[in-house]
Amino acid sequence: MSDLWRPQNTLDLIRRYDFRFRKKFGQNFLIDSHVLDKIADAAQIDPDDCVLEIGPGIGTLTQVLAERARHVVAVEIDPELIPILSETLKEYSNVTVIQGDILKQDIAEIAETYNGGRPLNVTANLPYYITTPILMNLLESGAPVKSITVMVQKEVAERMQAGPGGKDYGALSLSVQFYAEPYLAANVPPNCFIPRPNVGSAVIRLTKRSEPPVRVRDREFLFQLIRAAFNQRRKTLANAVSHAGVGQVTRERAAGALKRLGLSETARGEELSLSEFAALSDLLGGGEKTPDNSGGPSAPGSN
Ligand code: SAM
Question: How far is the CA of 274 from the centre of ligand 1 (A)?
Answer without folding.
Answer: 32
